[in-house]
Amino acid sequence: MDPPAIRIVLVAPQHPGNIGAVARAMKNMALSELVLVQPRQFPDPEATARASGADDVLAAARVTGTLAEALSGCGYIAATTSRERDQYFRVIDVRDAAARIVAAAQHSPAAVVFGAERTGLTNEELETAHALIRIPANAAYASLNLAMAVQLVAYELFRARGGSVPAGEPHAAPLASAQDMERLFAHFAEVLEAIEFRDRTQSGTHLMARIRRFLQRAELDENEVNILRGILTAVQSRRRHAGEGQR
């Protein structure tokens, strides 16, 4: 089985032993690309000891300063959550998510993002994802160790790769990269400010977050992002011309 273009991303892992255990879990399931975002301790002898034969995965692990850097070049992005549902995010079962990730990885690198052991992922970090992965567990004790969570997701990815290509509509064009999406969001925010379309809620902070989330749920491809940015550019152009005419 050829190594898939699937990246496991750990955000701010606290314990080096967990990093080693994650590397072992990945090698068990034929995954090799591990990225660590601001790990507390790495490299570390405990990580090497817990890797237990997966030294090659550990040695090849990349360390980045930001999540954006860790996701560079990725198309489809999934993030893990303990939430059963969320009105703003798409939350899908781990088995369904694995099938979708495997299909997406055939076109461009895909990523699965895991949060720190104690705190998980922030809302801002979750917003980088097209969907959130939920691992069903005992409601009375649903918290999973980081390495256990990676092992379960990696197992489902391994199963999905051995079966049929998943449900989900394949894109004719690759999904837009994380960088392309960030540029789209920045462009959106710039145009909304220019036309004075602002958040009318009491806190006044939710509009752009909502826009980010529904556009991520749409799983835009490169062509679709270009269309939206073309529309935004046209709005900016019309406003400039209107302003010139009033002088």
List keywords for this structure.
247 residues; elongated; Helicase, Ruva Protein, domain 3; 2 domains; 7 strands; Alpha/beta knot; alpha/beta
Structure description:
With 247 residues, the protein is of the alpha/beta class. The protein has two domains: 157 residues, SPOUT methyltransferase, trefoil knot domain (Alpha/beta knot), CATH 3.40.1280; 68 residues, Helicase, Ruva Protein, domain 3. Helices cover 46% and strands 13% of the residues. A seven-stranded parallel sheet has the order 3-2-1-6-4-7-5. Helix 1 packs parallel to helix 7, helix 5 packs across helix 7 and helix 8 runs parallel beside helix 10. It starts with 5 loop residues before the first strand and ends with a helix.
